[in-house]
From TrEMBL:
Keywords assigned: Coiled coil
Gene3D superfamilies cross-referenced by the UniProt entry: Winged helix-like DNA-binding domain superfamily/Winged helix DNA-binding domain (1.10.10.10)
Name listed for the protein in its UniProt record: Transposase
Listed GO MF terms: DNA binding; transposase activity
Source taxon at top rank: Bacteria
Provenance organism: Amycolatopsis jiangsuensis
GO BP annotation list: DNA transposition
InterPro entries: Homeodomain-like_sf, WH-like_DNA-bd_sf
Coiled coil: 64-98
Length: 111
């Protein structure tokens, strides 16, 4: 059985990952869900990020909402922009897949 050493992350990576997750915590509803969504984007293992999030919350690191409550109109705009961002990312992923497919189909070496 091979035992691997845990990966060491620089402090700035940890801070960025935790901040991104905390900023989206209300969107995902739990540290687990936020860690699994944000972790791959910042190349941090989700369980590692989840532990960091829990520690930050226990130490009283404020989330964006706690730092200054948003007005109802700001909250609605933020929610709308987050939804639009998710939809654009999904469309971008679909376009990337389609372009890879067509590039392969048009490649003369493919036939």
């Amino acid at each position: 059985m091979m035992v691997t050493m845990p990966k060491r992350y620089p402090p700035e990576v940890r801070e960025k990952a935790v901040r991104l997750a905390l900023d989206r915590l209300d969107e995902y509803g739990s540290a687990y869900a936020a860690a699994h969504a944000v972790g791959p984007m910042v190349d941090v293992h989700p369980e590692t990020l989840r532990v960091w999030i829990v520690k930050a919350l226990q130490q009283g690191v404020p989330s964006v909402a706690a730092a200054g409550e948003l007005a109802a109109t700001e909250r609605a705009e933020l929610d709308r922009l987050r939804k639009e961002n998710r939809e654009l990312k999904q469309a971008n992923d679909i376009l990337k897949l389609a372009s890879a497919f067509f590039a392969r189909e048009l490649d003369p070496r493919h036939h």
